[in-house]
Amino acid sequence: MNVFIKTYGCQMNERDSEAIAGMLTKEGCQIVDHESKADVLIFNTCSVREQAERKAIGKVGFMKKLKKDNPNLVIGIMGCMAQNHGEELLKTLSHVDFVIGTGQLHKLPEVLTSILEERSQLALLDEGCEVLTSMGSHYKMPDSKPCQAFIAVTRGCNRFCSYCIVPHVRGREISREINDVVEEAKELVSSGVKEIMLLGQNVAAYGLNGDTKPPPKGTSPFADLLKELNEIDGLVRIRFTSPYPSYFNDKLIDAMATLSKVCHNVHLPLQSGSDRILKKMNRQYTAEKYLEIANKMKQRIPDITFSTDVIVGFPGETEEDFIKTRDIMNNVGFDNAFIFKYSPREGTPAAIMEDQVQQEDKERRNQLLLQDLEERTAEHNENLVGTVQEVLVEGPSRRNAERWSGKTSTAKVVMFPPDEETERGKLVKVKINRCTPVSLFGDLI
Ligand code: SF4
Known about the structure:
Elements: E1 2-7, H1 11-26, E2 30-31, E3 40-45, H2 50-62, H3 64-69, E4 74-79, H4 80-85, H5 87-92, E5 98-100, H6 108-118, E6 122-124, H7 130-133, E7 148-152, E8 154-155, H8 166-170, E9 174-175, H9 178-190, E10 195-199, H10 221-230, E11 237-241, H11 250-258, E12 265-267, H12 275-280, H13 287-300, E13 305-312, H14 319-332, E14 336-341, H15 359-384, E15 388-396, E16 404-407, E17 413-416, E18 427-435, E19 439-444
Parallel strand pairs: 1-2, 1-3, 3-4, 4-5, 5-6, 7-10, 10-11, 12-13, 13-14, 17-19
Antiparallel strand pairs: 8-9, 15-16, 15-18, 16-17, 18-19
Helix pairs in contact: 10-11, 14-15
The chain binds iron/sulfur cluster (SF4).
Iron/sulfur cluster (SF4) is lined by residues 157, 159-161, 164, 166-167, 201-202, 244.
């Protein structure tokens, strides 16, 4: 049976799609690269923004024609949008055979068998813990990087930020056993993986059993996990995303500074630089605390780079609040930022807050932050011209096959002409001789 999987949204969804593909290929299915070649179409969806849902619904709607031409075609919607809208999707998109929510993804093979036998619509939407332990299979999707792999270490979120739909569609936070994660990492390394990215909606809350209080002083189960993974022979780099700032205590910062395989780049979601807005967002830190964490990391790891998420135009955000966000962003000096214009998500407290911000203010604030970001990144990259960087080789550049590209531990993209020994997954030294705001260019030494 040929299966086509289309993935929307975050890296967690990409990882889920890989795991789904792994499960299905074990059952004898083939993954194909175009919907026209498929017997089964799976849409692994996102609900974080309304636009992501609209896009997926539009695409699935378009599949009606394929189903008309081939009535045996099986079409399913999985993931966050399936969880969010459930059986309603089966009514509005009557050509869809099944919806599977985020807690039941591991049941896909059974669901497919049942659909093929009975040909009646099916919805599986319960929350479940088994999904965490049953989703360890890996499959290299055609567009994934050969030496890198994602490992999901937590699922769900208990923080309930007032704008966010994730806790409503991904359920309560659960963590995998440390040995389970380490075994998965070892298997990946034995298959040629050099870099792992640990994933979780709130990854640094790993091992806290859903407790929303940051770990007691001197403890960090997430740091313990990093330490275990750092011991794996053949593994070169460890990254993780996305951590909530309050979990960065001294123990975790110390682990990042001392464990040789943990990369010197951290995604530290800021969301706003105004304490008033942070409070309305139900973020449990102040701007001062955020800066204190970032500065501690800079002291312990001098070459560290930061990326972040920021929302502009959150309900009630004044010009003064926005300036505070702008200031803190320039102060930390992010190398990358995902800047979102606030859009209400039904079912979240922020969606019904009064004083929604005008679209034109959101646009203007977004542009200003993007300009600042470009300036900061250009400055940082200029400072690296003339230095020698250690680069993990990823492969030929997509735009210019005569160049190869790779990344530094600090997540900088480096382009260089290869020599006869250049190969994927190798660490090489590159002398940087020029840059743009997004990339560094150099020569092998
Ligand atoms: S911590 Fe992240 S995933 Fe959890 S509610 Fe807040 S924004 Fe959403």
